[in-house]
């Protein structure tokens, strides 16, 4: 496969035009959209308006006049389109961690009203740590008689669901390996065994089709700063299936989740629907950025997006093979396309140095402890030529031993 | 008092220069900084840099290169200077509501480790509703045997502290009346009776001196979008006195509060100090705005700021008297200067219409249900001529009966 073949793929790419909607960084091949998405041009325009008009000129009146007060709902509904959710089940607010706390407490209450013996929250050892930490927080406060975290291998998750299981907490695409679980099958299995499912969509939303309603997922949370390009640390989202709205409650009962927040009543009365998942006043700067960023998905077929994502990863791995590097970098991603997320991860002894050396050459990938390198593919803005460049620079780094440079001491990175 | 006298006051105002650091709205007298502060010019510059360089060009590397990862601490320490807190006790994150949940659960645990019979959280009927809602959330979550909310009149708060009281949850300056409690005395009384105090500084921070360490306050929360000018819905802050750090824990144990978040360990281990109050990934746009906004306080004497704030309110009320309006608008603020916040509130039958009619004339004040009008004074950017203009327009609105215009149907507003 040579550069001409690659360029041919870009010519017929149905998303070539979408790339132009992004404020692409100069002189970079960016394969880290699974960590922090690139800003869209519409986002910049929107932020300028929020700064120069809405906040600085219109000030407090903007809560009504520019509809700040409904941003959590407006943004939530745009996300709903991307995760297979009918309206009024998805809302944008807080962080994934905080939203997990709401989902965990709400779901536990529902299950335990039926069967107080169900106390186990089942999850996987290599789930993203904050997911596990939030279960530990709930367990510490409710006590072991209400909540116990049980961790198993990802491959054995389903076989551990039993009559003690209250909830299964699973992330659809593993942040380290990029392995995608069969969420539909997991939910069916959990429900058959009387448990509910909370699904973390951090590495799925905006990268592939998700069918929360069809799969009968109970609760879900997700991130807007990866494939949804909402900006660094952008607010997260939470989904609660409509069938649970009547029976759910969660303790972060702030005034934005009140049925009539502007009555300023001293008694909390939860709003009827998904709005009861809101807590405090949302950041308008952060919310406006997500709101604008989501418009790039208008008219996008998630099936076609998924196909391009898989094609990008196929081409990347094929090029590594061509460079005889598929033995040097050991794939830790699944061979089956259907089991992959939108990233390829490799085990490599000098993964940190490799990552740093690539950055020096303008190729941004991601290191994950202890020695993995992740290449994220964002089909809305990554071209096939990006992939070709990345593989070529990777080849040169290794040929020149740049990854062994003593400068590359291990240090912290952020997901 | 005529306009010339007023203009004289502006000439000798020590904060006249600070006004120039704000992006003042055109053709407006803005007396609503107690709801949403005005943007500083430095904030706009900073946001432009975050948008055009840090996010769009430097992307993921900015977590380290632009120190995004430490924003909660950096901003927290800037706030600490304004609330009388020695370093390492204040951090910026989440909303007030979410931070209240952390403070409530942390403080309850500390008290109940000593004395499990102390289950009452004492607060005031007219506290800001979200404060009360969060106690109701905790009570529901932990059960009545751990947490019960007891509401009393603000004037009787201290006399209700007894051997059942775990916590006193008080807001220093009431959002409706603007009445300021004696926090130092409250804390002394609570401690004498074995209870801890959580203080809400939403209407204090940035408007007057606060002495959390000196007053021996246990926990505090506060808002950055009012007198701190951090932007609409900007992240809040939380303070925990150092003496409690060893014994405190809170259930929103997200990865940013971990001792070593980037180890990605499946076991939660809280960070040693105030950092354990962090939960999820912070919004960089929102945090950067607060960070920049706080620089306007560099070198500001909070005592002098307080003096100007009281002077602004004195002048305003004096002008209403001059216009014979102090019987029409009934003061609900305390006569004693020391008991006032940085706002004056009046009861008036047509408060909503009055507020709307004033907005039409470019004077922005604030309506609070059922029939109060609040005038907020922000001494860093309000001039004495602003006050004169507001009183003059108010006189004209009432003289012309503009407040009775049938257009002014009651509707929602946001604090």
Automatic annotation (TrEMBL), chains A, B:
- Where on the chain is N6-(pyridoxal phosphate)lysine found, per UniProt? 226
According to its UniProt record, which cofactors does this protein need? Answer: pyridoxal 5'-phosphate
- What is a GO molecular function of this protein? kynureninase activity
Enzyme class, top EC level, equals hydrolase
- What's its EC? 3.7.1.3
InterPro entries, A to Z? Kynureninase, PyrdxlP-dep_Trfase, PyrdxlP-dep_Trfase_major, PyrdxlP-dep_Trfase_small
An example Gene Ontology cellular component term from the record?
cytoplasm
| The protein's role, per its UniProt record | Catalyzes the cleavage of L-kynurenine (L-Kyn) and L-3-hydroxykynurenine (L-3OHKyn) into anthranilic acid (AA) and 3-hydroxyanthranilic acid (3-OHAA), respectively.
Q: What is this protein called?
A: Kynureninase
Report the source organism: Idiomarina abyssalis
């Amino acid at each position: 496969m040579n550069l001409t073949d690659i360029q041919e793929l870009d010519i017929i790419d149905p998303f070539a035009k979408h790339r132009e909607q992004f404020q692409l960084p100069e002189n970079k091949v960016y394969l880290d959209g699974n960590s922090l998405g690139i800003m869209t041009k519409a986002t910049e325009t929107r932020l300028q308006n929020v700064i120069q008009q809405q906040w600085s000129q219109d000030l407090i009146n903007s809560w009504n006049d520019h509809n700040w007060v409904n941003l959590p709902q407006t943004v939530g509904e745009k996300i709903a389109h991307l995760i297979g959710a009918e309206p009024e089940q998805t809302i944008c607010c807080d962080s994934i961690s905080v939203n997990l706390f709401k989902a965990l407490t709400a779901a536990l209450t529902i299950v335990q009203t039926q069967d107080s013996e169900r106390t186990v929250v089942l999850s996987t050892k290599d789930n993203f740590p904050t997911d596990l930490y939030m279960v530990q927080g709930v367990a510490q406060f409710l006590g072991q008689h209400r909540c116990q975290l049980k961790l198993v291998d990802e491959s054995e998750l389903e076989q551990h669901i039993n009559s003690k299981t209250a909830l299964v907490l699973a992330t659809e695409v593993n942040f380290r390996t990029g392995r995608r679980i069969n969420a539909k099958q997991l939910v069916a299995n959990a429900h058959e065994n009387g448990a509910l499912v909370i699904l973390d969509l951090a590495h799925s939303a905006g990268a592939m089709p998700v069918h929360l309603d069809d799969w009968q997922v109970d609760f879900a949370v997700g991130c807007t700063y990866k494939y949804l390009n909402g900006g660094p640390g952008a607010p997260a989202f939470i989904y609660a299936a409509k069938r649970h709205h009547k029976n759910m409650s969660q303790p972060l009962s702030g005034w934005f989740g009140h049925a009539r927040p502007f009555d300023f009543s001293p008694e909390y009365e939860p709003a009827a629907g998904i709005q009861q998942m809101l807590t405090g006043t949302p950041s308008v700067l952060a919310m406006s950025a997500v709101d604008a960023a989501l418009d790039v998905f208008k008219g996008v077929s998630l099936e076609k997006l998924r196909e391009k994502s898989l094609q990008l990863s196929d081409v990347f791995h094929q090029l590594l093979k061509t460079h005889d590097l598929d033995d040097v970098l050991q794939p830790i991603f699944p061979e089956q396309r259907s089991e992959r997320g939108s990233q390829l991860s490799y085990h490599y002894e000098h993964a940190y140095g490799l990552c740093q050396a690539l950055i020096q050459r303008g190729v941004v990938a991601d290191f994950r402890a202890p020695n993995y390198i992740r290449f994220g593919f964002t089909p809305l803005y990554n071209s096939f030529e990006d992939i070709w460049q990345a593989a070529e620079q990777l080849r040169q780094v290794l040929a020149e031993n740049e990854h062994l440079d003593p400068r590359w001491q291990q240090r912290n990175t952020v997901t």
